[in-house]
Design a protein that fits this description.
Strand order of the largest sheet: 3-2-1-4-5-7-6
Radius of gyration: 17 Å
Number of helices: 9
Largest sheet: 7 strands, parallel
Distance between the termini: 39 Å
Amino acid sequence: MLALWPMKRIGLLGGSFNPAHRGHRRISLAALEALGLDEVWWLVSPGNPLKGSKGMAPFEARLESARAVARRAPIRVSDFEARAGTRFTIDTVSELLRRNRHDRFIWLMGADTVAQFHQWKAWRSLARRLPIAVISRPGYDGAARAARAMGWLRRFVRPSSHARDWTDWSAPAILLLRLPPDPTSATSLRALDPNWHRHSQSRAGPQRSGAPSSFRRPLARSSH
């Protein structure tokens, strides 16, 4: 019996997107090519447990900025975490896997995040649920390799020359991807314009209802 739809290879990029910027888009498209992905899903977090609320733009403004940056690209922007009520990545991933059993997912993580990975809720369990691709970032690669979590993850590192074979791997499996660098960061953009969300909201006008409540197809989105 033929399947109703083919398996999709999907990269998950979670984060605050405060704001979304060209760096998010560039690394997503580069990862899509390197890993042979069909899509990248941006999971916009309502609130990151490891970040304070100071300087955090409203959720709708961050969601809209992600939609604007992802336009005309194989990137799906979602408010899945807000709708599903998940706060930690392990819970978000578990729910996505439950709702999309026919697809294969890989978690995309910037090298700057690896140093905090051991602080994530059930981080070893997360690594056992799906492969992880660590994307190089200027100035962070050394710290990523020396990170506390890498003491455990290092034994599961796979060769980057086999990046497109990730769907054949059993998790834990981690891949260190060296992609074209982009120094853009949300921190630097906020420093230049702390009120960026007010400008973008005034240009955008009324907010759209936006992304679907789940990624589950008919007929069957770094909180941490």
